[in-house]
């Protein structure tokens, strides 16, 4: 049976600014990795049908073995839909020999204006591979959203 995980956060930035941060390589490398990880994008093509390859490295892999290797998660992401200021839909596949991480997970980033200069960002992950722990995944989504909020507030991102 398919599984859906979610997270949401109101961010003090207009939807257009948040959208640009979802499609900027340097921004993604900075804010997307959840706490305890760092990320590096190896391939980048920000258009519908394009995508990226990200290598996420655990800062301390002792209690969090990676999906691809002992210390890394490698994920291939395709942009399925890009609706400026409103939505980014990604299809993500982990590079792993473990069948528990097989399959394509869809990550939908919905942006809703929440008030003057603020945006509610809702992330919905569908078809989550069974090897991904639900609590850890939802905590990771929340962490990425917190990093996005901090990134936009601290950097005054213009994209």
From TrEMBL:
Domain Activator of Hsp90 ATPase homologue 1/2-like C-terminal: 12-153
CDD domains from the UniProt entry: SRPBCC_CalC_Aha1-like_2
Matching Pfam families: AHSA1
Organism domain of life: Bacteria
Homology family: Belongs to the AHA1 family.
Protein name per UniProt: Activator of Hsp90 ATPase homologue 1/2-like C-terminal domain-containing protein
Organism: Streptomyces hundungensis
Phylogenetic classification of the source organism: Bacteria, Bacillati, Actinomycetota, Actinomycetes, Kitasatosporales
């Amino acid at each position: 049976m398919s599984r859906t995980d979610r997270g949401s956060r109101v961010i003090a930035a207009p939807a257009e600014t948040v959208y640009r941060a979802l499609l900027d390589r340097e921004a993604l490398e900075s804010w997307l990795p959840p706490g305890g990880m760092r990320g590096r994008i190896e391939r980048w093509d920000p258009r519908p049908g394009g995508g990226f390859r990200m290598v996420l490295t655990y800062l301390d892999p002792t209690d969090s073995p990676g999906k691809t290797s002992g210390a890394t998660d490698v994920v291939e992401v395709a942009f399925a839909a890009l609706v400026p200021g409103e939505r980014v839909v990604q299809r993500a596949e982990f590079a792993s020999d473990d069948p528990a991480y097989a399959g394509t997970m869809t990550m939908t980033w919905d942006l809703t204006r929440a008030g003057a200069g603020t945006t509610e960002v809702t992330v919905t992950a569908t078809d989550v591979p069974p090897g991904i722990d639900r609590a850890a995944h939802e905590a990771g989504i929340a962490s990425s959203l917190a990093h996005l909020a901090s990134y936009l507030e601290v950097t005054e991102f213009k994209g």
